[in-house]
């Protein structure tokens, strides 16, 4: 028992993937909070670095993070670190022997890997670095195929691929604990999915959203703009029951024109339920319904543990809601391949500012306390400021991460947590406080998006004409 206690508060090293960099910290924080643990980084913490040191955790905590994260590659119990190999050696020799000895016994097997960031080493150079660590008292046998323990030497050569130093900027050595879930990005790739659409969410981002929302087993998760159900697939992977709604009749029923190349119409079993069946989580499928997000169909009261969604931006999917004949001036005709009943409600434009206001109000009404709302907010970058992010008195902003789409547009992944139930005074507060007023600039996102494309196209034509005038130089 004494040995176990002495190993409770060790320092751990997380090796992170260098994609979706802006999403990594909120994901790790969210996963730690599931276990009631704070994010406690080591000294000189740099968010953009591929290596983070974490304090105050147990090995069980680290394993729970790695069992879910798609932003981290691997985790290690840190034995030593330094700016040079000499500093690393001194650090390793100071590491408590009682912490090392259980993994260096004669009856154990081991191997040492060398990982480098931003630089590729020749095989011979890797072997030299491993041989140089002979000062560590490994008494077991080397087993490269199936070792009992794996140790890793990790070298950081910075993040600039155009300025790679000859020697590493920092070096770490530790015992491998676990790998992250990067394999999910490949195994759940949209390319191999049974049912997809024009806006099906990328697998990696879907799992990141589920982790930001802290989705866990037996939760009930809802997507009000469900589309082809990519987010439901990710949430069901973590054991949550999933449901959703969408105004698009054809998408909900899996009929109409196909989104795949060389396929004109969707097949008989292309639907959201089939997607969950593909990944073995059909038992967690509650249902999906044709419904207008601006007119909620749900009974009053708390219903959902998490609400995760990607609202339409008006680019590849239109933003629309149902209306009445009185509003027919702004109505939208149904698509040509619509195959629903003959009576079609008038379809009207659904402004982005209204979409986000309705989404936050719905979440305030129907999330459990501590439940999270995670959604994408499209942004015209030259005009962005934090005041554009919608707020609600019942929801606390947890994180705001940017994914750049072009030089002038991006979308931001917004995570909010419900902190209190709605009160009558909240409505008055929303009217009197400008911070709660919908940002009307969101409504022009589509026009700004295409104006940016037009400007780039014109600039390209001008360059072409200039080159032609100069004889093609």
From TrEMBL:
The answer to whether UniProt assigns keyword Transmembrane helix to this entry is no
Instruction: Name the GO cellular-component terms.
Output: cytoplasm; tRNA methyltransferase complex
| Gene3D superfamilies to which the protein is assigned, alphabetical | Vaccinia Virus protein VP39
Record's InterPro entries? DNA_methylase_N6_adenine_CS (IPR002052), RlmKL-like_Mtase (IPR000241), SAM-dependent_MTases_sf (IPR029063), TRMT11 (IPR016691), TRMT11_N (IPR059073)
Family annotation (PROSITE patterns): N6_MTASE, SAM_MT_TRM11
Q: From the UniProt record, which GO molecular function terms apply?
A: tRNA (guanine(10)-N2)-methyltransferase activity; tRNA binding
Assigned keywords, A-Z: Cytoplasm, Methyltransferase, RNA-binding, S-adenosyl-L-methionine, Transferase, tRNA processing, tRNA-binding
- Using the UniProt record, name the top-level EC class of this enzyme in a single word: transferase
PANTHER family per UniProt: RNA METHYLASE-RELATED, TRNA (GUANINE(10)-N2)-METHYLTRANSFERASE HOMOLOG
Q: What is this protein called?
A: tRNA (guanine(10)-N(2))-methyltransferase TRMT11
| Source lineage | Eukaryota, Metazoa, Chordata, Craniata, Vertebrata
The gene from which this protein is expressed is TRMT11
